[in-house]
Write a structure and sequence with these properties.
Blueprint lengths: L11 H4 L3 H13 L6 H10 L1 H11 L4 E2 L5 E2 L8 E2 L4 E2 L1 H5 L7 E7 L3 E6 H17 L7 E5 L4 H12 L3 E5 L5 H8 L6 E5 L1 E4 L2 E4 L1 H9 L6 E5 L18 E3 H4 L42 H6 L5
Helix pairs in contact: 2-4, 3-4, 6-7, 8-9
């Protein structure tokens, strides 16, 4: 077999049933011409950019307001802007599908197995969004997830996006200082975390790390602890009063299951660059100049 030969190719009948084949047929109608293959379709997408992206918006049935302008400064790269007046919501578009079919299938190594249908995911996102809104989270606010890849991580991200807020996350194997360096830049209002996580078949408790992190993130108004290792984790003692802890099923209990999404421009938050520790401007502070301890910070230090 030639090294350039494909290992597998669909039959013509199967290829004709794909979304790509359907899109190519729609593109041929929009362009008023035939495309012999994918390369010709790609070439049309680069020479007729406004027509291509308008067709893609319609073909994918994007939920939102497209706006009048399709492309601004199309000859600039970087600098070109597609749909600069568009307003849409990420969560609204991802949760269009409803029903009892699986939306998420979760295996936490060999110990935790769960499935969420589209209806269940939609209901969970709705309750979380209402709980976040009740906590004062709105457009432009930040919500952080110190989470493994569990269903509630997806739901919390979608709930945050539905409010027009900004989501940032890191994995639970991050150390305390790494989490502080990442989330300290964005000053989140709410932090989602599990009581622990699994790695290599071993359980790792997290609440002591969460307590240390909460002490260094004064912007937090609420920490939501998700049961993972324990059905009813003992969490209320794990953080200072300024960052009270609650369980996700308690925070979302008794709320309606209809999601109300806020449309707007999409904001993506990446906070991987390490920030410098806060410096102290107080002459009476006894903490090292390079970094104020939590005790000094609470008594005499003001970050620059």
């Amino acid at each position: 077999m030639s090294a350039s030969a494909p290992l597998w190719a669909p039959t013509p009948e199967r290829a004709a049933q794909t979304n790509m084949a359907r899109f190519m047929a729609a593109a041929e109608q929009a362009a008023g011409r035939r495309f012999a293959d994918y390369a010709e379709l790609h070439h049309w997408s680069t020479e007729s950019r406004e027509a291509f992206w308008s067709l893609l918006w319609d073909f994918c049935e994007v939920q939102g307001r497209r706006g009048e302008r399709r492309l601004v400064d199309g000859d600039r790269m970087p600098g070109a802007k597609f749909f600069p007046d568009a307003r849409l919501n990420f969560a609204e578009n991802l949760l269009r599908r409803r029903g009892a079919e699986d939306a998420l299938v979760f295996w936490g190594e060999d110990r935790v197995k769960r499935r969420l249908s589209w209806d269940q995911l939609h209901a969970l996102v709705s309750r979380l969004a209402q709980a976040l809104k009740a906590q004062g989270v709105g457009k432009g606010d930040r919500v952080a997830g110190y989470l493994p890849n569990m269903p509630e991580a997806t739901a919390a991200m979608l709930a945050t996006a539905s409010l027009g807020a900004i989501w940032s996350s890191c994995s639970p194997d991050f150390g305390v200082q790494g989490v502080i360096d990442r989330f300290g830049q964005i000053e989140p209002k709410v932090l989602f975390c599990p009581d622990g996580y699994l790695y290599g078949g071993k359980p790792f408790e997290m609440l002591e790390k969460v307590r240390e992190i909460a002490d260094e993130l004064p912007s937090l108004t609420r920490i939501v602890v998700l049961p993972y290792l324990h059905a009813e984790p003992e969490v209320l003692h794990a953080a200072r009063a300024r960052s009270p802890l609650g369980r996700v099923h308690r925070a979302a209990r008794g709320r309606r299951d209809r999601l109300q999404a806020r449309r707007g421009s999409i904001t993506r938050c990446t906070s991987s660059i390490r920030r410098a520790p806060p410096a102290c401007r107080s002459a009476s502070c006894t903490a090292p100049a390079a970094r104020c301890s939590s005790t000094a910070k609470s008594t005499c230090c003001t970050p620059t």
